[in-house]
Amino acid sequence: MSRQQEQKVLPLRQRPHVFLQLVRNLAGDTRNVKWSAHARERFEERDISNRMALDVIRKGEISGDIVAGRMAGEWRAKLTYPIPGRREVGVAIILIRETRTLVKTVEWGD
Q1: How would DSSP label each residue in 26-61?
Q2: SS3 for 83?
Q3: What is the reported pLDDT for 8?
Q4: Rg value, the chain, Cα
Q5: Is the pTM of this model over 0.90?
Q6: pLDDT digits (tens, 9 = 90+) for 18-45
Q7: Is the model more confident about 7 or about 45?
Q8: Of 74, 69, 82, 62, the residue nearest 16 (C-alpha)
Q9: How many helices (H) and strands (E) would you count in the chain?
Q10: Phi and psi, residue 63, nearest 5°
Q11: Of 4, 21, 30, 74, whose CB count within 10 A is highest?
Q12: CB 66: neighbour CB atoms within 10 A?
């Protein structure tokens, strides 16, 4: 492949509606949602429950870009959703090979 041809190759991108559909479908069964140790620590520290985080995953919208993860088949994004009576919650999530999810962290939106 020539240098000119190499420059025309575009990186793969995950389409937002596809990402959301996959993540929401997986989150319908909590066995498909894994929590990192960091996320579990932040639940307590930030007074965010795993129920709130699941609501964000199931109902939230993408905030920012969807980026490729460190490993092949991984996509990373931040989802946000306003929790009634509280504030907006953000969940950093990794979609792994379209078969499971890993929550990296949870945070308040402000």
Answers
A1: HHTSGGGEEE-HHHHHHHHHHT--HHHHHHHHHH-E
A2: coil
A3: 56
A4: 16
A5: no
A6: 999 999 999 999 999 999 999 999 999 9
A7: 45
A8: 62
A9: 4, 6
A10: -115, 110
A11: 74
A12: 18
Burial of 96: CB neighbours in 10 Å, binned 0-12, 13-18, 19+: middle
Q: Which amino acid is at 97?
A: R
What is the pLDDT confidence band of residue 88, given thresholds at 50, 70 and 90?
very high
The dihedral through the CA atoms of 82, 83, 89, 91 has a sign that is negative
Q: Residues 86-95: what's their mean pLDDT?
A: 95
Return the structure tokens found at 3: 């240098």
**Cα separation, 96 vs 72, whole angstroms:** 9
Give me the mean pLDDT over the 56-80 stretch: 95
Q: How far apart are CA 78 and CA 62, in angstroms?
A: 6
Show the tokens assigned to 14: 């995950």
Structure tokens at 41: 């620590």
